[in-house]
Design goal:
Helix 1 links the parallel strand 1 and strand 2. Strands 2-1-3-4 form a 4-stranded mixed beta sheet, with helices on one face. It is globular. By secondary structure, it is an alpha+beta fold. It contains 8 helices and 4 strands; from the N terminus they run E-H-E-H-E-E-H-H-H-H-H-H.
Length: 216
Protein backbone atom coordinates (compact mmCIF):
# COMPACT_ATOMS: atom_id res chain seq x y z
CA UNK A 1 0.00 0.00 0.00
CA UNK A 2 1.63 3.23 -1.17
CA UNK A 3 1.36 6.41 0.87
CA UNK A 4 1.23 9.71 -1.01
CA UNK A 5 3.84 12.20 0.23
CA UNK A 6 3.37 15.84 -0.71
CA UNK A 7 6.87 17.21 -0.57
CA UNK A 8 9.61 19.65 -1.52
CA UNK A 9 12.87 17.74 -1.86
CA UNK A 10 15.22 20.17 -0.03
CA UNK A 11 12.96 20.40 3.05
CA UNK A 12 14.55 18.92 6.20
CA UNK A 13 11.11 17.87 7.45
CA UNK A 14 10.37 16.04 4.19
CA UNK A 15 13.73 14.31 4.33
CA UNK A 16 13.04 13.11 7.88
CA UNK A 17 9.88 11.36 6.66
CA UNK A 18 11.71 9.86 3.69
CA UNK A 19 14.33 8.41 6.05
CA UNK A 20 11.73 6.91 8.39
CA UNK A 21 9.71 5.45 5.54
CA UNK A 22 12.87 3.88 4.11
CA UNK A 23 13.76 2.37 7.49
CA UNK A 24 10.27 0.85 7.70
CA UNK A 25 10.20 -0.38 4.11
CA UNK A 26 7.24 1.85 3.23
CA UNK A 27 6.66 2.80 -0.39
CA UNK A 28 6.04 6.53 -0.84
CA UNK A 29 4.27 7.99 -3.85
CA UNK A 30 6.02 11.36 -3.94
CA UNK A 31 4.14 14.42 -5.18
CA UNK A 32 6.47 17.43 -5.39
CA UNK A 33 4.93 20.86 -4.87
CA UNK A 34 6.30 23.95 -6.60
CA UNK A 35 6.39 26.56 -3.84
CA UNK A 36 7.71 29.22 -6.24
CA UNK A 37 4.52 28.88 -8.26
CA UNK A 38 2.35 28.74 -5.15
CA UNK A 39 1.10 25.19 -5.59
CA UNK A 40 0.98 24.83 -1.80
CA UNK A 41 -1.57 27.68 -1.66
CA UNK A 42 -3.99 26.28 -4.22
CA UNK A 43 -7.47 25.31 -2.93
CA UNK A 44 -6.96 21.61 -3.61
CA UNK A 45 -3.88 21.51 -1.36
CA UNK A 46 -5.39 23.76 1.30
CA UNK A 47 -8.25 21.29 1.51
CA UNK A 48 -5.70 18.59 2.36
CA UNK A 49 -3.53 20.72 4.63
CA UNK A 50 -4.88 24.17 5.63
CA UNK A 51 -1.47 25.07 7.06
CA UNK A 52 -0.06 24.57 3.52
CA UNK A 53 3.15 23.02 4.84
CA UNK A 54 5.22 20.03 3.81
CA UNK A 55 5.43 17.16 4.34
CA UNK A 56 1.85 15.92 4.21
CA UNK A 57 0.92 12.27 3.85
CA UNK A 58 -2.34 10.86 2.50
CA UNK A 59 -3.11 7.17 2.85
CA UNK A 60 -5.28 5.23 0.41
CA UNK A 61 -8.20 5.35 2.86
CA UNK A 62 -7.98 9.15 2.86
CA UNK A 63 -6.29 9.55 6.24
CA UNK A 64 -4.23 12.75 6.12
CA UNK A 65 -1.48 13.98 8.42
CA UNK A 66 1.16 16.68 8.35
CA UNK A 67 4.16 17.67 10.52
CA UNK A 68 7.15 15.35 10.19
CA UNK A 69 7.32 14.60 13.91
CA UNK A 70 3.67 13.50 14.01
CA UNK A 71 4.00 11.62 10.70
CA UNK A 72 7.04 9.64 11.80
CA UNK A 73 5.48 8.66 15.13
CA UNK A 74 2.38 7.51 13.25
CA UNK A 75 4.32 5.55 10.64
CA UNK A 76 6.31 3.62 13.23
CA UNK A 77 3.24 2.98 15.38
CA UNK A 78 1.28 1.60 12.41
CA UNK A 79 3.90 -0.03 10.21
CA UNK A 80 6.90 -0.80 12.43
CA UNK A 81 7.78 -4.47 12.90
CA UNK A 82 8.76 -3.50 16.44
CA UNK A 83 8.77 -0.35 18.54
CA UNK A 84 12.52 0.34 18.52
CA UNK A 85 12.19 3.56 16.51
CA UNK A 86 9.42 4.86 18.78
CA UNK A 87 9.34 2.87 22.02
CA UNK A 88 6.08 1.92 23.73
CA UNK A 89 7.80 2.13 27.13
CA UNK A 90 6.46 5.41 28.52
CA UNK A 91 9.74 6.74 29.89
CA UNK A 92 11.70 5.91 26.75
CA UNK A 93 8.97 7.37 24.56
CA UNK A 94 8.87 10.51 26.69
CA UNK A 95 12.56 11.13 25.97
CA UNK A 96 11.97 10.63 22.23
CA UNK A 97 9.00 13.01 22.39
CA UNK A 98 11.05 15.62 24.24
CA UNK A 99 13.73 15.49 21.56
CA UNK A 100 11.08 15.77 18.83
CA UNK A 101 9.57 18.81 20.54
CA UNK A 102 13.06 20.30 20.82
CA UNK A 103 13.60 19.64 17.15
CA UNK A 104 10.34 21.31 16.19
CA UNK A 105 10.28 24.21 18.62
CA UNK A 106 13.97 25.07 18.91
CA UNK A 107 16.26 23.53 16.28
CA UNK A 108 13.96 23.66 13.25
CA UNK A 109 12.52 27.03 14.25
CA UNK A 110 16.00 28.53 14.60
CA UNK A 111 17.14 27.25 11.23
CA UNK A 112 13.87 28.20 9.51
CA UNK A 113 14.18 31.83 10.57
CA UNK A 114 17.61 32.11 8.96
CA UNK A 115 16.68 30.07 5.88
CA UNK A 116 13.54 32.14 5.39
CA UNK A 117 15.55 35.36 5.49
CA UNK A 118 17.88 33.97 2.83
CA UNK A 119 15.20 32.62 0.49
CA UNK A 120 12.50 35.28 0.92
CA UNK A 121 14.08 38.44 2.31
CA UNK A 122 17.28 38.68 0.28
CA UNK A 123 19.73 37.91 3.08
CA UNK A 124 23.12 37.22 1.48
CA UNK A 125 25.41 36.27 4.35
CA UNK A 126 25.51 34.37 7.60
CA UNK A 127 26.17 36.93 10.33
CA UNK A 128 27.43 36.64 13.91
CA UNK A 129 23.93 36.44 15.34
CA UNK A 130 23.09 33.54 13.03
CA UNK A 131 26.23 31.72 14.15
CA UNK A 132 25.41 32.36 17.80
CA UNK A 133 21.87 31.03 17.43
CA UNK A 134 22.88 27.90 15.52
CA UNK A 135 25.78 27.17 17.86
CA UNK A 136 23.33 27.49 20.75
CA UNK A 137 21.33 24.64 19.20
CA UNK A 138 24.50 22.57 18.72
CA UNK A 139 25.32 23.19 22.38
CA UNK A 140 21.97 21.79 23.50
CA UNK A 141 22.43 18.69 21.34
CA UNK A 142 25.94 18.22 22.76
CA UNK A 143 24.38 18.18 26.24
CA UNK A 144 21.71 15.67 25.16
CA UNK A 145 24.46 13.31 24.00
CA UNK A 146 26.56 13.44 27.18
CA UNK A 147 25.33 10.08 28.48
CA UNK A 148 23.76 8.62 25.35
CA UNK A 149 25.01 6.94 22.18
CA UNK A 150 22.03 8.20 20.18
CA UNK A 151 19.94 11.31 20.63
CA UNK A 152 17.34 9.67 22.89
CA UNK A 153 19.10 6.61 24.24
CA UNK A 154 21.18 3.60 23.23
CA UNK A 155 19.47 2.87 19.92
CA UNK A 156 18.28 4.76 16.87
CA UNK A 157 14.85 6.37 17.07
CA UNK A 158 12.83 8.78 14.97
CA UNK A 159 14.33 11.54 17.13
CA UNK A 160 17.68 10.81 15.44
CA UNK A 161 16.09 10.94 11.99
CA UNK A 162 14.24 14.20 12.58
CA UNK A 163 17.04 16.00 14.35
CA UNK A 164 19.61 14.77 11.81
CA UNK A 165 17.50 16.16 8.96
CA UNK A 166 17.30 19.53 10.71
CA UNK A 167 20.97 19.66 11.64
CA UNK A 168 22.02 18.65 8.13
CA UNK A 169 20.45 21.91 6.92
CA UNK A 170 21.96 23.91 9.80
CA UNK A 171 25.35 22.38 8.99
CA UNK A 172 25.15 23.99 5.54
CA UNK A 173 24.63 27.39 7.18
CA UNK A 174 27.16 27.03 9.99
CA UNK A 175 29.25 23.82 9.95
CA UNK A 176 29.32 21.81 13.17
CA UNK A 177 32.62 22.54 14.92
CA UNK A 178 34.00 19.16 15.99
CA UNK A 179 36.33 20.85 18.48
CA UNK A 180 33.48 22.60 20.31
CA UNK A 181 30.87 19.89 19.79
CA UNK A 182 32.68 16.55 19.48
CA UNK A 183 29.67 14.46 20.47
CA UNK A 184 27.42 16.23 17.98
CA UNK A 185 29.98 15.76 15.21
CA UNK A 186 30.42 12.07 16.02
CA UNK A 187 26.66 11.49 16.28
CA UNK A 188 26.02 13.33 13.01
CA UNK A 189 28.61 11.22 11.21
CA UNK A 190 27.10 8.03 12.66
CA UNK A 191 23.55 8.90 11.57
CA UNK A 192 24.77 10.09 8.18
CA UNK A 193 26.25 6.62 7.58
CA UNK A 194 22.96 4.76 8.20
CA UNK A 195 21.74 3.14 4.95
CA UNK A 196 18.22 4.54 5.29
CA UNK A 197 19.61 8.08 5.36
CA UNK A 198 20.85 7.78 1.77
CA UNK A 199 17.32 8.47 0.54
CA UNK A 200 17.63 12.03 1.87
CA UNK A 201 20.99 12.89 0.34
CA UNK A 202 19.68 14.16 -3.00
CA UNK A 203 17.34 16.57 -1.25
CA UNK A 204 20.15 17.77 1.00
CA UNK A 205 22.35 18.43 -2.05
CA UNK A 206 19.54 20.49 -3.59
CA UNK A 207 19.16 22.45 -0.35
CA UNK A 208 22.89 23.17 -0.20
CA UNK A 209 23.00 24.33 -3.83
CA UNK A 210 19.95 26.54 -3.29
CA UNK A 211 21.41 28.20 -0.20
CA UNK A 212 24.87 28.70 -1.64
CA UNK A 213 23.40 30.31 -4.75
CA UNK A 214 21.88 33.00 -2.50
CA UNK A 215 24.88 33.66 -0.25
CA UNK A 216 27.81 35.84 -1.19
Amino acid sequence: MAITLYMVAPSPAVRAVQITAKALGIELKEKPLNFMEGEHLKPEYLKINPQHTVPTIVEEDGFTLWDSNAINAYLVSKYGKNDSLYPKDLKKRAIVDQRLHFNNGVAFATGLKIIGAILRAGKTKIDDQDREELNRVYGFVEAFLQSKQWIAGDSVTIADYNLYATLSAMNVLVPIDAQKYPKVAAWYKKVDALPEVDVSKEGLAKFEAMIKSKLK
